[in-house]
Design a protein that fits this description.
The chain has helices spanning 8-25, 31-40, 46-58, 73-76, 93-104, 187-190, 215-233, 264-279; strands spanning 2-5, 63-67, 108-112, 122-124, 143-146, 158-165, 171-176, 195-197, 236-238, 241-244, 247-250, 257-258, 282-285, 291-295, 299-303, 316-323, 340-341. It has 342 residues and is of the alpha+beta class. The protein is globular. The model has no long low-confidence stretch (mean pLDDT 94).
Length: 342
Amino acid sequence: MHQLTLTAKDNVMLFPLLSELAEAHGTIEDPELIRRAPVLACSLPPHLLEFLEEFRTCEPSAVCLVSGLDMDERVLGPTPEHWRNTEHASTSLPQEIFFLLCAARLGDVFGWSTQQDGRIMHDVLPIKGHEHYELGSNSLQHLSWHTEDAFHPCRGDYVALMCLKNPDLAETMVCDAGDLDWDALDVEALFEAEFTQMPDNSHLPQNTAQSTGNPVQDRLRARSFALIQSWNENPVKRPVLFGDRHDPYMALDPYHMKKDDWSDRMLRAFQDLCDQIEKNMQDISLRPGDCAFIDNFRAVHGRKSFRPRYDGSDRWLKRLNITRNIRGSRAWRPSAADRIIY
């Protein structure tokens, strides 16, 4: 793991910057804040900028962890019952801005119109009634390991998690592609576009609001839901591996992959890859103030089960999607400046 711990001096330096930006912008969803984030990030401590740049350019690990950001649970208040309850007056806005600025050093943040009402920054917390769903809001069952948004051609290069609370130290599971024995796998088969990948449940209409109140946005989002439905009914065939054959990138989500028409060779190659991933899975318990940046090309991730409390003290994370090629999604966004994919 690529890891850096902020010092007390770092936190003292960051406090006025983050407080000033929080007062000026009021919400992490402010388009002007998101637009300025790459420039504002230059004000972060130089050693942190160098650390993030090394992770971005040299790929020393599939996980980058920045620890030690000051976090006061008394200021945070209770964990919300639902992500919809966090829209206004965030109690963690300074920390969210720090998280955003770090992310902006790796690429451009973006959101999905089909997830959490089109927000850029998501809340990850247990929701009553979701305990056994295959969603990030579940709790009593494992969240199966996966590539984030593996089904979509515009999936992010990184998925990032910032921990606000994790009282039971629930474990995030990560497998780094660098830990796999590629010589023991049928890499050529896994590079073939023969694997059917379906959309995950978080993009289904029932898991977001039915209307934004904006007719244009509603029309575009309806188009997105229709496309997702078509992909569910007629899954697109894609490779599981891509990039360099000796050190490949991965894109797979076994829970949402339809295997009915795979050849025996494809089934064996895929199962052997999954077995190796299971064998090399590592557990990470995020603590308050931890910001983890997971390379979505080089890692799969999930989460172990935990027992929710529903008393305001539950595990609470923030999540960002980051891309290094925002132009690659231009056909999916209403304007060049827009950061929501429809």
